[in-house]
């Protein structure tokens, strides 16, 4: 009997060794998960775009606001300087450098803020002349966020100090104009080989839902227009459209919307319009940002959980670098303690959220690549150098 027990134990021991070895070999051969790290890109840092001159007459775009802070507010605490200088992002050689730096550090998608005012596109030169003409554009994907908000005096520092909300351009568009926009974007951008797609479906994000509804004439008309947009995308040869919602309060403020008795009105509203995914654009849209960064992140994680519980669409976690709008106005709520180390902690939280949702692509969005005048940017500067980019690289490239 003893010899049989000995043999049985030996077999079990050998089996454990074999399984352990196999697991170790699998771990060695299985590549680390690849994440899509998408940074919003604000396309106002360009030279020689005539439509920007009414706001920034020097011809260097909103770099004019960045470089004039100390002149406008002598001794002011905000004194940021870009390591790369006041670059022209509509220059393809400059954009090629940015693509190299971004992808080297793990940022492999740019989400271009895209505008349409006065019956034509606005701030499109960074995308058309810079990104799409860069010789290494295929290293990076891109998609559009239609920033369809009104334009007031915020950009013009000569006027915004008067606190006037004069509407220069309206963000809302009619159905005819909406169709013109959609057809143009399908042909001009969706068909680009490096346009970002999920399951073959181009991703298109919309910023301001009340403006969209106002222009199109109501919820029913908006749902019909967005349904047409999806069908038009399919007619162009794609399997569908991933319609992405900017998840924040103004876009969900339809408490009176009729849903079923078993469905929350906000979720019913989002489904009615046909949105299939969502992310945030900025922490400032849904929580108090005049706080310590790690305290803000506690609110952010609660928001992620709330979305998980109350919405059926796919939510992709968002991390903002910070918030301080004072370069434009001289006053602002200010995120405190948003060091690269704390930013790295937020990225790990976003990574954990993505890993907990294995049935959706591991997309994480970041505000932003270059929102200098909102003090929420990844580009290197005189304060933290390459610190924010290094944090992304450590977590998503080096996988530490």
TrEMBL record:
Q: Where is the signal peptide?
A: 1-24
Q: Which InterPro entries match?
A: WbsX
What is the name listed in the Swiss-Prot or TrEMBL entry for this protein?
Glycoside hydrolase family 99-like domain-containing protein
GO molecular function list: hydrolase activity
> Is Hydrolase set as a keyword in this record?
yes
- UniProt entry keywords in alphabetical sequence: Hydrolase, Signal
- Tell me which CDD domains the record gives: Glyco_tran_WbsX
């Amino acid at each position: 009997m003893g010899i049989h027990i000995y043999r049985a134990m030996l077999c079990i021991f050998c089996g454990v060794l074999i399984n352990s070895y196999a697991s170790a070999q699998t771990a060695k051969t299985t590549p680390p998960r690849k994440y899509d790290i998408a940074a919003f890109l604000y396309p106002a840092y360009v030279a020689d775009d005539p439509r920007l001159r009414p706001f920034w007459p020097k011809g260097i775009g909103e770099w004019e606001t960045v470089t004039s802070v100390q002149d406008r507010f002598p001794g002011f605490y905000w004194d940021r300087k870009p390591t790369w200088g006041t670059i022209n992002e509509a220059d393809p050689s400059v954009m090629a450098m940015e693509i190299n730096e971004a992808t080297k550090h793990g940022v492999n998608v740019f989400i271009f803020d895209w505008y349409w005012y006065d019956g034509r596109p606005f701030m499109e030169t960074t995308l058309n002349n810079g990104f799409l003409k860069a010789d290494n554009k295929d290293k990076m994907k891109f998609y559009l966020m239609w920033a369809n908000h009104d334009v007031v005096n915020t950009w013009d520092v000569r006027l915004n100090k008067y606190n006037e909300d004069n509407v220069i351009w309206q963000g809302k568009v009619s159905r005819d104009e909406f169709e013109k926009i959609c057809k143009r974007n399908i042909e001009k951008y969706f068909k680009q080989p490096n346009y970002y797609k999920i399951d073959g479906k181009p991703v298109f994000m919309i910023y301001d839902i009340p403006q969209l509804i106002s222009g199109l004439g109501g919820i029913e008309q908006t749902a019909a227009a967005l349904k047409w947009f999806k069908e038009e995308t399919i007619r162009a040869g794609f399997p569908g459209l991933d319609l992405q919602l900017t998840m924040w309060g103004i876009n969900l403020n339809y408490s009176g919307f009729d849903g079923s008795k078993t469905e929350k009105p906000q979720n019913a509203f989002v489904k009615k319009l046909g949105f299939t995914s969502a992310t945030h654009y900025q922490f400032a849209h849904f929580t108090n940002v005049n706080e310590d960064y790690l305290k803000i992140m506690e609110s952010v994680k609660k928001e992620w959980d709330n979305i998980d519980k109350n919405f059926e669409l796919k939510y992709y976690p968002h991390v903002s670098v910070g918030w301080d709008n004072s370069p434009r106005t001289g006053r602002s709520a200010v995120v405190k303690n948003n060091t690269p180390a704390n930013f790295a902690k937020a990225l790990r939280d976003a990574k954990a959220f993505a890993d907990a949702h294995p049935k959706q692509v591991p997309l994480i969005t970041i505000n932003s690549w270059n929102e200098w005048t909102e003090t929420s940017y990844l580009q290197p500067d005189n304060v933290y150098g390459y610190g924010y980019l290094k944090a992304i690289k450590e977590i998503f490239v080096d996988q530490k």
